[in-house]
Design a protein that fits this description.
By secondary structure, the protein is an alpha/beta fold. The protein contains six helices and six strands, in the order βααβαβαβαββα.
Length: 165
Amino acid sequence: MKTGRVTVSDRANAGIYEDRSGPEIEIVLREVLGADLTFVSTIVPDELPLIASALKNFADEQLCDLVVTTGGTGISSRDVTPEATRSVLEKELPGFGEMMRALSFARVKTAILSRAVAGTRGRSLIINLPGKPSAVRECLEILAPAIREGVAHLRDEDPHTTLLR
């Protein structure tokens, strides 16, 4: 399964600090999907057109089955990942964001400030994750069954016999 990961961070893009959330996406997805995954990745600043362009590239040009973002889902003025994502989605899947917020709220009461969204573009499933590595892990572990099934449906495979098990 080809997976694109987009780290959205002004500081990581500028080299001010190391991206830890992007690599965590790869570690967790390999653990929870149990499949042979190939990753393509990029780091972009918190700029709506650049985020949207990265998402379109991974979905349309790179033909990624799954595209996962990390960062930019809060409420500060620079947090525009949900807006960029919505601008490229064909179908929104609100259950992903709802589940992440509900799960995270049990541990961190400010999780309700997250605006993460998910949906599809062509045959790609796109999911926004928080920017903190521990939150990336927490969210991907709970979302793994839905990711498997969603990717199988987008590939027009039977989700009960897909190799993503």
